[in-house]
Amino acid sequence: VRKTGGFDGEKIKNNANYVRVRENSNEFAHCAKMGTYFRSSLQPYLKQLCIPYVHNGVLGLFQEISRLDLVSLRGERKVFIGLQSEEAKSVIERFEFDKNLPFGTIFPFQYALDFDEGRLLISEFSSKQLKKVQGATHINLQFLWIGLDFEHQSSFVQNSSAVLTISLEDAAVLDLEFTCAIPENPVVFGLLHLAYFQRVNDVDYDLHTGGLKIVGFR
Questions:
Q1: CA 32/CA 92 separation, integer angstroms
Q2: What is the percent of the chain where pLDDT is above 70?
């Protein structure tokens, strides 16, 4: 008679043969916790966009960052230490919340972030170059700073600029500027949020389409 297989919880906890499993499990749990903390700070924006599998993407981001911790023992590597490495900035800035729809394919414009003034500048913006979305008549653009403490996860700060609404029928080429206060938290992310909507008889209908992009990190 074939016996029930599967994992033995007691062996995984104590057997030397499972040391790698325990190490991987510890780091996975840590990165999942950091991912939840990060996503909580962006919850209103992520909820509006309905991005599929965003949890998995954010988890993968923090697993990659934790591997940049070159001082902790295997199984104990931490995100907040990995964030201090020189490579962390490039890892974060190439991250896409929606891997199936990279932000650059929606919003193909150059931008510059000023950490001293808390300002985001977007050069030569034109609504005609935006990705076409069926039924959309306008977009909302908003810049935000997210301040976090990945070591203690005690709280987060979310500061946002005024929302800029632009008609998709407006063909003007514009230089856009967004400003808001920079949080004093140990880790700060700058993000740009784009949402498409349809305006009918002065009523706005959210299309749950757009994008969110990390445009800077410190």
A1: 16
A2: 91
